[in-house]
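debug: dumping io for the single-chain case to check the tokenizer round-trip. Nothing else runs in this session.
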Amino acid sequence: MKRESMTGRERWLAVLNRQTPDRIPMDYWATPEATARLCKHLDRDWPEVEAKLHLDVPLGVAGNYVGPPPKPGEDLWGIRYREVNYGSGVYAEAENCPLAGYTTVDEMEADFTWPSPDHWDYSHLPEQVKGQEHRVVRGGGSEPFLTYKLLRGEEQAFLDLLLYPELVEYILDKLFDLAYESTRRIFETIPGVVSITYVAEDLGGQDGLLFAPEQIRRYLLPRMKRMMDLTREHGSFVFTHSDGAVRDILPDLIGIGTQVLNPVQWRCPGMDREGLKRDFGDRLIFHGGVCNQQTLPFGSPEDVRREVAENIRILGKGGGYILAPCHNIQAVSPPENVVALYEAGLECG
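debug: decoded output
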């Protein structure tokens, strides 16, 4: 096998800049349970697994919270969580929605204290990235509607878009402003170091968009564009995560600045790989593409290898592809399939 001539950082940057790397970069997303199974299967600790599978995992950087301590059992938003075991993994699920009872902005302003950007410290970042020059660095970004749903409740959040538009605008502005200032401070603390910034919202479900397009265009896209403008001004690439069937909104996302699309759930309607590559491949880098709903959990290692080869042939044609699973690998996926994913990536990419 040819000796690798690039670092993970160099590989990522080559693809992002439409250049040719020594091989396709390979990212890793998984739950803690899936990672523990993989380490046990390979009888190695994580750094050894990372090296064995030739992974190119980014280094994530963020501020440290130093603000007022939350109440016992709550996070900084006042949300309480309980752990729910789903059989193959444990997830923390919110038990309360601190902003669920409000119907006007005036009520909320009088009663709720929003976190301040000054509640986070960034002075540790130069030391954190020291010695990690071989990794591409991911930092900053936003996903405020996810927080909005936790604060208001899943069902209420979507009803708000029709019933309480003023409230939606107010809350989203607060959340986006906090994300914007946090991202700006990261960029300024380690100038020129961050190469990927995660500007995300889950806009799609399994069969189509979760929102009407006009709601996406009113509430989310202008605020996401502000984040993307900041990102690109500082030389970082806009990495947009949105699960599901999002083809109908892709031209809008590209128009406001999206450069990398994740996770490419190609089994969803409209998300076929050939069509995405044909119609958007000159404007988007694709990240993901290995199905963790069917192939990884229920296929054979050969099925996984075949899909990886297809992804590289289709999404990687002419460049513009970073190999990764479609979102987090779950513990139900056999570790043999995870190994097959990256072995095939190394062989084909």
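debug: round-trip ok. The radius of gyration is 20 Å.
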